[in-house]
Amino acid sequence: MRFRMLHLGGLLAFATLQVSSFSTSSVLYLVVDKSENTITLYDQSDWLVQWPCTFGNNDISDKLYQGDRRTPEGRFKITSKYPHKKWNKFMRIDYPTKEDYAKFEARKKAGIIPANAKIGGDIGIHGTWPHEEWAVENLQPWTQGCISMRNDHLNELYQIVPVGTSVVIRQ
């Protein structure tokens, strides 16, 4: 059992987290709140644990196109999980979805984004470079649109959620 410092709407609280206490039969899902810089694990009845996270840009609006360093919004699934040599571990999400392609094409048609823009991809939840957890602790945006967590927090989450877990990303 370990003590965990949680960010709860700007307040700090202490809770205990025991990874082995999570049932594999529980329906778990994640909510990433870009305005609060948090990723929260839920089960069917309530939230279980919350960790700080950071993104690629201080602009927390929806991702428009590849290279804008924004994090997409919507409902996604974790499609794969694997160790990553730069960022500890990586949990890929299924961006872009059909809905993302529809928004992207509508924005192109409306002239909101350049006609030659690409939608992008390779979005996921990952850690930091070794010994650079300060980027998350200081909520410094640094990714290309992914969600970054401290490596120790990511290691816990990685053990808990399986491929197929739902991920909601919102402002």
UniProtKB/TrEMBL annotation:
It comes from the Bacteria. Pathway: Cell wall biogenesis; peptidoglycan biosynthesis. Keywords: Cell shape, Cell wall biogenesis/degradation, Peptidoglycan synthesis, Signal, Transferase. The active site is at H126, C146. Residues 28-170 form the L,D-TPase catalytic domain. SUPFAM superfamilies: L,D-transpeptidase catalytic domain-like. InterPro entries: LD_TPept_cat_dom, Transpep_catalytic_dom. CDD domains: YkuD_like. GO terms for biological process: cell wall organization; peptidoglycan biosynthetic process; regulation of cell shape. It holds the Pfam family YkuD. Residues 1-21 form the signal peptide. One of its GO terms (molecular function) is carboxypeptidase activity. Gene3D superfamilies: L,D-transpeptidase catalytic domain-like. Belongs to the YkuD family. This is L,D-transpeptidase family protein. It comes from Phnomibacter ginsenosidimutans.
